[in-house]
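Incident log, support desk, overnight shift.

02:14 A customer reports that sequence design results differ from what the structure should imply. Their input is reproduced verbatim below. On-call engineer (initials T.W.) acknowledged and began investigating.
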């Protein structure tokens, strides 16, 4: 209020007291809060990554069990069918020859008397072809291949979809910790730049702020905060900016490298452009024109030089609109933060939509697979089993009645049923 009414601030006014006295406390609290948020989000990403692995292994286990049961029952059914077909090996050739001759006689009889056709129509149409054992084996194997290919195809499709979804989720979560750290680094620079200039000016004017520096420890704290800000800014500019480690789009990469080298005045928020047009090109020794990388190097060198000369006891270099320049830099960093945040949300939404699309497609496939199994495949297998069970009806009569080996095999098969 004093600034609004009087146009200035008295050094021992309540405004000045609470602003400067509480500044470091507030900044310290927000810094700790940022660190806590970062730690929690990293822990949460690791927990989600662990849960993703567990869920994926459970799904693969359930998938294996499901298809294992399906293959087990299919093989069990095949064994039952093959046991019925295996009765053919107990048929003696002489009985087959006898049955063929018998049928030939029937044919001759039918040719002579057509009335016999209606009485033996079923036997005449099916018996000789079903007695051909090589033909039986060929049909059996030919259809079995299709069943096995069917199971293998859908097993591969389901496992492939699960693997793809797992890979995409793992890739996102693997990059997330580095992404969160980069976001915090950018945010820190946005507060560290104005902190260095503001706290330096407070140290220069320490005689006017006795309520702050009445204890020697306060001076050390202010100097320490400037050094910490310098170190974080140095670490930021020394980063290799390997965006392959981050969850970002190509458009943000292009924007970030552009802001590193282009005139920063072009990136000032719209609400500040009119007010800053006259000073943006000249603040901070005209380094705003050279891009963020060069500007941060200039700020680090400038603050380091001031500190090495006399530990900020007295101003050794001319100061012109430095606080205003630091304020503009902070707002430009905020633009980077906002774009990064929006881009991260877009990338997260894209990943979630992609994973949902894969799962929806897979659920549709499994739905149609279930319908196919319950309707077509189930009926085919039941029909196959019924045909095998009725195979004994067309065996040579003498094998059924006179062959003891065939009788024992048939009794054993009936007991197993």
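02:41 Re-run completed on a clean worker. Output:
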């Amino acid at each position: 209020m004093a600034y609004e009414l009087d146009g200035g601030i008295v050094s021992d006014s309540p405004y000045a007291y609470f602003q400067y006295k509480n500044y470091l406390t507030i900044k310290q609290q927000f810094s700790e809060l940022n660190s806590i948020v970062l730690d929690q989000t990293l822990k949460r990403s690791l927990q989600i990554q662990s849960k993703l692995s567990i869920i994926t292994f459970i799904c693969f286990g359930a998938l294996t069990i499901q298809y294992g049961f399906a293959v087990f029952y299919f093989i069990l059914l095949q064994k039952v069918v093959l046991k019925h077909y295996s009765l053919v090996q107990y048929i003696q050739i002489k009985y087959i020859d006898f049955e063929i001759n018998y049928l030939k006689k029937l044919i001759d009889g039918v040719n002579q008397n057509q009335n016999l056709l209606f009485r033996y129509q079923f036997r005449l149409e099916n018996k000789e072809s079903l007695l051909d054992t090589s033909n039986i084996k060929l049909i059996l194997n030919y259809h079995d291949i299709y069943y096995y290919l069917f199971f293998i195809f859908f097993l591969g499709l389901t496992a492939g979809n699960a693997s793809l979804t797992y890979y995409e989720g793992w890739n996102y979560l693997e990059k997330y910790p580095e992404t969160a750290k980069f976001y915090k680094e950018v945010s820190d620079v946005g507060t560290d730049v104005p902190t260095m200039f503001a706290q330096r000016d407070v140290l220069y004017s320490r005689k006017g702020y006795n309520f702050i520096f009445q204890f020697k420890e306060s001076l050390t704290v202010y100097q320490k905060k400037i050094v910490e800000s310098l170190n974080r800014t140095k670490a930021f500019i020394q980063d290799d900016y390997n965006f392959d480690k981050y969850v970002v789009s190509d458009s943000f990469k292009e924007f970030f490298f552009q802001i590193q080298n282009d005139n920063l005045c072009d990136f000032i928020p719209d609400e500040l452009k009119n007010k800053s047009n006259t000073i943006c090109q000249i603040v901070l020794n005209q380094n705003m024109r050279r891009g963020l990388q060069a500007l941060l190097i200039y700020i680090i060198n400038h603050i380091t030089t001031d500190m090495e000369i006399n530990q900020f006891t007295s101003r050794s270099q001319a100061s012109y609109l430095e606080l205003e320049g630091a304020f503009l830099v902070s707002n430009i960093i905020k633009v980077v933060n906002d774009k990064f945040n929006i881009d991260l949300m877009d990338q997260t939404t894209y990943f979630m939509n992609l994973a949902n699309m894969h799962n929806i497609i897979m659920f549709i496939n499994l739905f149609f697979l279930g319908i196919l199994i319950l309707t077509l495949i189930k009926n085919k297998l039941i029909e196959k089993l019924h045909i095998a069970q009725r195979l004994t009806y067309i065996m040579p009569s003498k094998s059924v009645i006179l062959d003891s080996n065939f009788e024992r095999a048939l009794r054993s098969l009936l007991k197993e049923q």
